[in-house]
Amino acid sequence: MELVTLRFYEELNDFLRAECRKRPFEHPFQPTQSIKHLIEGLGVPHTEVEIILANGVSVGFDYLPRNGDRISIYPMFERVDITPLLRLRDKPLRQPCFLADAHLGKLARYLRLMGFDTLFFNDAGDRRLVEISVDERRILLTRDRDLLMHRAITHGCFIHTLDTKAQVSELFNRLDLYALVAPFTRCMMCNSTLDQAAKEEIATELPKRVAELYTEFWRCGNCAKIYWKGSHYKQLAGFVRTLVAADDNE
Ligand SMILES: [Zn+2]
Questions:
Q1: Are 174 and 120 in contact, with CB atoms under 8 Å apart?
Q2: Which CATH number fits domain 3-75: 3.40.50.720, 3.30.300.30, 3.10.20.30, 3.30.360.10?
Q3: Which residues lie at CB < 5 A from ion ligand 1?
Q4: Among 42, 76, 100, 231, which residue is least crowded by beta carbons within 10 Å?
Q5: What pLDDT, in 10s, does the model give residues 197-229?
Q6: Per-residue pLDDT at 17 exceeds 80
Q7: Ligand 1 center–CA 93 separation, angstroms
Q8: Cα–Cα nearest to 6, from 61, 59, 75, 54
């Protein structure tokens, strides 16, 4: 029987059976199986893998393991310079845009509030999600690892946590989104862009207290929802400050 020794690093261990986590383990394989096939067979979606080292040399997903190979598998680390190594896919887009699956609606709204172009559908099937992600070069956000194992998907992120704020923090760390936050640029309801609106133009649509307290307003070009820096904004701004401060202290 042909055997390789595999070692997975960091959060990739979350996908493995307990006995394979955080240590090297031997694994049988067929000589015609690519390393990508082997990795996904163990439950780790290829979108989560950034670097593969076979006997210390970086290799691609099509590498065919040989008997006795020692293979190390690392997750995405956007924040570490790994230029001497072979990345398994194109660099992430400068201005990343997202596609959230049906279970991540709250995360999608948070991302929009922070200015990130994020599509979200309640009712799109897996096939449609794969199509949109590929056609529009959107990073697919999901907690469904089978979806990420679809061979057409190139940019995806498995979301490990359940709490929305923890999800935002996870994504910010993985993709280094801190510098790209732009509040009041995108509608949290429909993802369209917002325009600044003069108070006198929208005065009749505002609750009385809001009209008294605020001077700056934005309106969605698509669904006409009006935004101002009310309590929701203050909460969000506070949250973003905590994220950025945690980042600076690293
Ligand atoms: Zn809108």
A1: no
A2: 3.10.20.30
A3: 187, 189-190, 192, 220, 222-223, 225
A4: 231
A5: 999 999 999 999 999 999 999 999 999 999 999
A6: yes
A7: 24
A8: 54
